[in-house]
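To the structural biology subgroup,

Please find below the input and predicted structure for Transcriptional regulator, MarR family, which we are adding to the shared reference set this quarter. The sequence is reproduced verbatim from the submission form. If anyone notices a discrepancy with their own records, reply to this email rather than editing the shared folder directly, so we keep one authoritative version.
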Amino acid sequence: MRLMNKLGESEKLPRNYGINELMTPSDIHLIQAIGANPESNIRTISDILGITPGAASQQVTKLAKRGLVTKSRGVKNEKEVFLSLTPLGEKAYRHHETLHEEIYQRIISRIDPLETKDIHTMKKVLQAMESVYEERLCEVRRELMQYNARNETDESMGDFC
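Predicted structure (tokenized):
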């Protein structure tokens, strides 16, 4: 539980990703999704991030105003908007990727001395935890959809599982 709390706390703190301004985790995750999926559209990014297209669109607009993302209209369909990173957005994306790589390397250096059987045991434990939390997340999303339906709110949760 302590590990999850620390992960949760670290995912709330804004950081500087090499561009001399603070970015929230949701900002950098959107940058990461666009960087990993160039020329994607709002729907694709919203599906990747598990957020509504409206929320993704608002966030993209905010990042475009900050000079991190560009929006361009489709040639065949002018209603479709394609997303790409500006050089500044690309710099933040690369910095974020480097940060992840450094974290992975630190973890590997600490588990490297373990025996293979211990690593396999850890993997099984982590997979079990992931499975339980995936189930719980589905349950919570289902409950929220039912609540929204009862209260006639129009908040889409996408696929709940």
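Summary notes: Residues 140 and 160 are 8 Å apart (CA to CA). The longest helix spans residues 116-150.

Regards,
Lab coordination
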